[in-house]
Design goal:
This protein has 384 residues and is mostly helical. The chain folds into two domains: 5-228, Tetratricopeptide repeat domain (Serine Threonine Protein Phosphatase 5, Tetratricopeptide repeat), CATH 1.25.40.10; 287-379, Serine Threonine Protein Phosphatase 5, Tetratricopeptide repeat, CATH 1.25.40. It is 76% helix and 0% strand. It has 20 helices and no strands. α3 packs antiparallel against α4, α9 (162-179) runs antiparallel to α11 (195-208) and α16 packs antiparallel against α17 (308-326). The chain is elongated, with a radius of gyration of 23 Å. The model is unreliable at 1-24 (pLDDT under 50).
Length: 384
């Protein structure tokens, strides 16, 4: 499990902000911040950088411009996950943000602006190190971010933007150990959370926060999809996010997944076809992993409609994508695509080919009873 409790502390610092910290900024700077944030979420990174450079020029001693400039590169890391090209630029911008905050805190250790942005940037850097499996650095940044969050809560406990951090803390400090019991000893030193309160805080942040609303929506989408499944609510949030930010592949993928959850197969297929087209057109973030998922889900939709010839084409293409993405370590996608391909071949009376596929599955690792399923279809062909 790649993201344990250190991810909690990273989430806690995710875009924690209070209106008081922005009060010294002009209307023009605030507009630039808002526009730049929208560009980030919509993956229009060049436009975002232009906005934040202007903010830095207007307020060279304020951390907001440096923080958001670093976030441009954080999202680049998220979108372009198969390259290390953006690692150093991101880390350089993190260091610059911390330096600006520390200069302020040297004169005033309780400066709310510097505390907010230092905690936030430490959280993002900790998450970056967690993705790299550099657990010592990740844990150190995460814990320091957590301590800063507590200090921020003392200063602005009722601010709706601050509720993002509180909501994430209350929810995930309970939800993660419930799902991953191995994290309980790591979480022991933290105060006890409250899942119901956490959801209420995230919903309040989503509706009322000036700066952190989108981050609250992302958290709600994730928890309704995975931790406390509610297909309808997960779909509502995913649809809202993608409608607002139609160039964001992360939101686009969640929307496609939510259509499966609510059983809307028509829109599911249309969504994944759109995603596949964007992959073919090399849109930012629509990578090979995304193509693999799209090919699988389109093939699955065709299979459900008994269009087995077309379904076979897509499932074989999915397996080709699996070979590129997974290399020599077959993923769950690879194994499930093989199972589905065998079933599709059986439905077309291509029994010899289906048998070869099922036997291949038995040589791969057992995923969600894949061996049992393969043996079942070896003994009795799938009829569709």
């Amino acid at each position: 499990m790649k993201k344990l409790i250190i991810s909690i502390a990273l989430l806690l610092s995710f875009y924690v902000s209070a209106q008081s910290q922005w009060a010294i900024m002009s209307e023009r700077a605030d507009s630039l911040v808002q526009a730049g944030k929208t560009y980030i979420y919509n993956c229009e990174f060049d436009k975002a950088e232009v906005c934040f450079k202007k903010v830095i020029n207007l307020y060279p001693n304020h951390p907001v411009g440096y923080f958001l400039d670093a976030m441009v590169y954080y999202w680049k890391l998220t979108v372009y996950e198969f390259t290390n090209y953006y690692d150093k630029p991101f880390l350089d911008r993190v260091d610059k943000t911390i330096d600006v905050c520390d200069k302020i805190l040297k004169n005033n250790p309780n400066d709310i602006t510097a505390l907010f942005f230092k905690g936030g940037i430490l959280g993002y850097r900790g998450r970056f190190y967690g993705e790299k499996e550099k657990w010592l650095q990740s844990g150190s940044d995460g814990f320091n971010a957590y301590k800063i969050l507590l200090k921020c809560i003392e200063i602005a406990p009722d601010n709706h933007d601050v509720m993002l951090g509180m909501g994430l803390f209350n929810y995930f400090t309970v939800a993660i150990p419930e799902r991953y019991p191995a994290t309980k000893p790591i979480l022991y030193f933290l105060p006890k959370g409250d899942k119901k309160l956490g959801i209420l805080q995230l919903e309040a942040c989503s509706k009322n926060a000036r700066y952190a609303g989108v981050e609250a929506d992302v958290a709600l989408m994730q928890l309704y999809y995975s931790f406390d499944p509610d297909a309808s609510k997960a779909y509502d949030v995913a649809n809202s996010l993608f409608t607002r930010f139609p160039n964001n592949p992360y939101f686009h993928r969640y929307l496609g997944r939510c259509y499966i959850k609510i059983g809307d197969w028509k829109n599911m297929e249309a969504t994944w076809r759109d995603i596949l087209i964007k992959h073919i057109n090399k849109k930012a973030g629509y990578d090979n992993k995304t193509a693999r998922e799209a090919l699988f889900d389109i093939g699955w939709a065709l299979m459900r409609r008994r269009e087995y010839g077309s379904a076979e084409v897509y499932m074989r293409k999915c397996l080709e994508a699996c070979q590129i993405v997974d290399n020599k370590d077959p993923s769950a996608w690879w194994i499930e695509a093989d199972i589905k391909l065998g079933m599709i071949l059986d439905a077309q009376n291509k029994r010899d080919q289906a048998v070869r596929v099922y036997n291949k599955v038995l040589k791969l690792k057992d995923y969600e009873q894949s061996h049992t399923r393969a043996k079942t279809y070896l003994s009795k062909p799938y009829k569709g």
